[in-house]
Amino acid sequence: MTDHATTQSAELKEQVRQRYGQIAQGVLAGGNGSASCCGPANIELADGFSLDAVIPLQAASNCCGSSAATTTAGLLYGQNELTGLPESVTGAALGCGNPTAIAALRPGQTVLDLGSGGGIDCFLAARQVGPAGQVIGLDMTEAMLALAERNKASLGDAAANVRFVRGEIEAMPLPDGEVDVIISNCVINLSLDKDAVFREAFRVLRPGGYLAVSDTVALQPFSEEMRRDAAVWSACASGSLDVATYMARLHAAGFHPVQISDVTPTDFGLSEGVDDGAAAVAGELAGGLKSWIASAKIVAHKPLQN
Ligand SMILES: C[S@@+](CC[C@H](N)C(=O)[O-])C[C@H]1O[C@@H](n2cnc3c(N)ncnc32)[C@H](O)[C@@H]1O
Question: Given ligand 1 and candidates 81, 142, 187, which is best to mutate, with the most ligand atoms within 8 Å of its CB?
Fold first, then answer.
């Protein structure tokens, strides 16, 4: 079951890409990799991007005044985890949880991060799997990949075992059965075809591998109008599945057992963080974002034998 008709899906996906592209461009324009988000804009952009097109995020988010761009990371991660990560990593955190805290990663594992954004969870996973392991960050948005590559370069050897790949989570450009653990942070809700994501996740995992993700879940049904609204969808809101549906669709893809826990109504600090678009949406939804969505921990295993 796709989550929308095909033409609507294509349009909404493009709007999701644009939204996250603009956020990434804002972070790229606002810092030099190690400076704060108020830093100089003397940066190189990936092919096809020009500074003229950049939307200066700090102008819209007060991040220069209050360092609010670090607030989301500060809420989701422990200070010990954030130590050593530049602000262009922590300031680009757009998640709703901390997947590496639930994934029980071990040295030597191959980890795939779906919708890796600026790369924060990849860099945290890289520490846990060590030099014998590897981390693949998959994202469809060119500017996010450019930001992630810059962040990787600024981390040097600490990120030598991380690589970023351009692609869609509904059609992962990866071989069968080579991933030990899939992580993801607030991305699957954005997909227009979640069954394809779960099928692909099952395909690329090795037997006995598992998915350990943070994602949003719906606390009440979104109207069809809200589900068609690009702003509400791309703010990680109206694409969210309710818990029962999320479980059923993971089971249908072959995952067993599946566990969804720690369902926590939250606005992830979006009201004043890097993601002002989501803050605006939260203001428009009756009762605020917390009445509509929660963050949850989702763990689903690919059985050793089918
Ligand atoms: C809310 S951000 C989360 C980024 C990152 N996981 C984090 O925690 O900071 C969503 C990310 O998923 C990416 N994304 C959304 N839909 C995608 C899709 N269908 N395929 C690949 N990437 C996608 C966006 O480009 C964006 O970087």
Answer: 187
CB atoms under 10 Å from CB of 166, counted, come to 12
d(CA 299, CA 257): 8
Query: What does the pLDDT look like over 226-283, one tens digit per residue?
Result: 999 998 999 899 999 999 999 999 999 999 999 999 999 987 655 455 566 777 777 7
Q: Which atom of ligand 1 is nearest to the CA of 24?
A: 27
Q: How many domains does the chain have?
A: 1
Structural domain boundaries enclosing 155: 6-301
Q: Closest Cα to atom 20, ligand 1: which residue? A: 168
CB distance 137 to ligand 1 below 6 Å = no
Whether residue 306 lies inside any domain: the answer is no
Task: Say whether 165 sits in a helix, a strand or coil.
Answer: strand
> What's the predicted TM-score (pTM) here?
0.86
Task: Indicate if ligand 1 lies below 6 Å from the C-beta of 69.
Answer: no
Distance of CA 96 to the CA centre of its chain: 8
Residue 42 has pLDDT above 50, yes or no: no
Task: Identify the CATH number of the domain in which residue 227 sits.
Answer: 3.40.50.150
Q: Residue 162: inside a domain, yes or no?
A: yes
Is any ligand 1 atom within 6 A of the Cβ of residue 95?
yes
Identify whether 275 is part of a domain.
yes
Distance 12 CA to ligand 1 centre (A): 14
The answer to whether the CB of 144 is under 6 A from ligand 1 is: yes
Please give the C-alpha separations between residue 89 and each of 16, 23, 50, 148, in angstroms, as whole numbers: 20, 13, 21, 8
Euclidean distance between the first and final Cα of the chain, in Å?
22
**pLDDT tens by residue, 111-152:** 999 999 999 999 999 999 999 999 999 999 999 999 999 999
Share of the chain above pLDDT 90, in %: 68
Residue 125 within a domain? yes
